[in-house]
């Protein structure tokens, strides 16, 4: 089959984040199975370029407010050779491209999660309300089209927002690091008394909650550290500065290490961080899936996450511990449990390893192909069967 992806950024973009890597891995998975894949994305340097990466033809388009128009013009050149268009609805700095207007009905909308809580945490109140309303308008516009999302939690929330529940399919994510990098995880005794946040450092991720949890732990037991590792977009530099200031003000700056990268953390460095720490933190109000929790589990590291992380990725008492978003007291208490209770840590570590093994990019590609066929978009379903 011939797929065309309409995305915000490709996986080689210097500001690429979780959604970009997820969509890119699906595209590469399809290409590996013999499908033709064209991938439109915004250019990082403002220039239109073509490149072939891992069997995927990437066509980079000049970004900005006119991006949808430029993308439309580029798409028209290949529309007659496209069987299925995959449109990323919201992602990165992408303006909605409204591909339902020109994709001839052969469209799959990729919608990672309902964004209202992200908008509320990231932007001023007035803007957040407008963006939430805009997302609901989009849901009405795309109601009759197939929608792929990352988890059952996201599927339920998207249906409540107005999308057709019968046309929503779940295509889970997987780890970005090679599973072999996480082999032979270090035992509890050999690990550092360290908690880690890994990911793009954005305001809505509420990394400040991790600092507050560290403060509570320092007051009770002391001796633990926090590593904050990831990249920062230009419009979030002020938030990073506020985190450094907050650490100084509450007296934990000497226990916090900021590891800021120009782009994605190199896989071997990420694996090394995860294999040495005792706990991964994910304090954000909502996650479509949370790749980093799977990566931590693949390294034998239990996680402490807010209830914004779907149960598809983290189950309380199985591969991690879950607390209500914003409840710093509960967050710090659960972190303390994993830092001190060897038996609990080892139980969650072992179960996490098993749970992480379920999530592979091959399985994700299977799920996506099955969804495409189930929605009647396959030109010849035997093509998809033979690709496996």
Map the helices and strands.
Layout: E1 2-6, H1 18-32, E2 36-42, E3 49-53, E4 56-61, H2 67-76, E5 84-88, E6 107-110, H3 116-122, H4 125-141, E7 147-149, H5 152-161, E8 168-170, E9 194-198, H6 207-220, E10 225-231, H7 237-249, E11 256-261, H8 267-276, E12 279-282, H9 291-298, E13 303-306, E14 320-323, H10 328-340, H11 342-356, H12 361-374, H13 381-386
Parallel strand pairs: 1-2, 1-5, 2-4, 5-6, 6-7, 7-8, 9-10, 9-12, 10-11, 12-13, 13-14
Antiparallel strand pairs: 3-4
Count the helices. How many? 13
Q: CATH homologous superfamily of the largest domain, by name? A: Glycogen Phosphorylase B
* Largest sheet strand order: 3-4-2-1-5-6-7-8
CATH architecture verdict of the largest domain: 3-Layer(aba) Sandwich
Helix percent reads: 25-40%
Number of strands: 14
User: Which segments are poorly predicted (pLDDT under 50) over 5 or more consecutive residues?
Assistant: none
Mean pLDDT across the residues is 93
The whole-angstrom Rg is 21 Å
Distance between the termini: 13 Å
Structural class: alpha/beta
CATH structural fold name of the largest domain? Rossmann fold
Query: How would a crystallographer describe the biggest sheet?
Result: 8 strands, mixed
In total, how many domains does the architecture comprise?
2
Elements, N to C (H/E): EHEEEHEEHHEHEEHEHEHEHEEHHHH
- General form: globular
Strand content: 15-25%
CATH class of the largest domain: Alpha Beta
């Amino acid at each position: 089959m011939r797929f065309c992806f309409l995305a915000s950024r490709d996986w080689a973009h210097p500001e690429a984040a979780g959604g970009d890597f997820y969509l890119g891995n699906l595209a590469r998975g399809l290409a590996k199975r013999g499908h033709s894949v064209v991938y439109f994305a915004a250019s990082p340097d403002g220039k239109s370029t073509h490149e072939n990466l891992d069997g995927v033809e990437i066509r980079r388009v000049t970004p900005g407010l006119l991006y949808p128009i430029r993308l439309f013009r580029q798409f028209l050149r290949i529309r007659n050779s496209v069987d299925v268009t995959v449109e990323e609805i919201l992602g990165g700095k992408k303006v909605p491209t409204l591909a339902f207007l020109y994709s001839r009905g052969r469209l799959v909308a990729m919608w990672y999660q309902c964004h209202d809580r992200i908008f509320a945490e990231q932007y001023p109140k007035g803007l957040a309300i407008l963006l939430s309303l805009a997302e609901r308008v989009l849901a009405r516009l795309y109601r009759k089209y197939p929608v792929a999302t990352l988890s059952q939690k996201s599927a339920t929330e998207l249906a409540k927002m107005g999308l057709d529940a019968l046309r929503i399919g779940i295509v889970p994510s997987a780890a970005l690091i090679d599973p072999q990098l996480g082999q032979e995880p270090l035992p509890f005794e050999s690990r550092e008394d360290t908690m880690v946040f890994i990911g793009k450092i954005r305001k809505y991720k509420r990394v400040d909650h991790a600092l507050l949890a560290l403060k509570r732990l320092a007051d009770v037991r002391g001796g633990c550290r926090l590593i904050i590792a990831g990249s920062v977009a230009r419009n979030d530099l002020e938030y990073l500065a506020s985190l450094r200031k907050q650490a100084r003000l509450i007296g934990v700056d000497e226990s916090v290490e900021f590891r800021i990268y120009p782009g994605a953390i190199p896989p071997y460095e990420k694996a090394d961080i995860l294999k040495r720490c005792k706990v991964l933190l994910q304090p954000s109000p909502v996650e479509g899936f949370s790749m980093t929790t799977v990566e931590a589990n693949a390294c034998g590291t239990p996680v402490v996450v807010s209830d914004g992380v779907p149960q598809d990725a983290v189950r309380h008492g199985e591969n991690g511990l879950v607390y209500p978003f914003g409840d710093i007291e509960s967050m710090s208490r659960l972190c303390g449990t994993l830092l001190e209770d060897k038996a609990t840590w080892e139980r969650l570590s072992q179960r996490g390893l098993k749970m992480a093994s379920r999530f592979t990019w091959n399985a994700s590609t299977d799920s996506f192909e099955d969804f495409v066929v189930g929605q009647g978009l396959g030109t010849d379903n035997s093509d998809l069967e033979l690709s496996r």
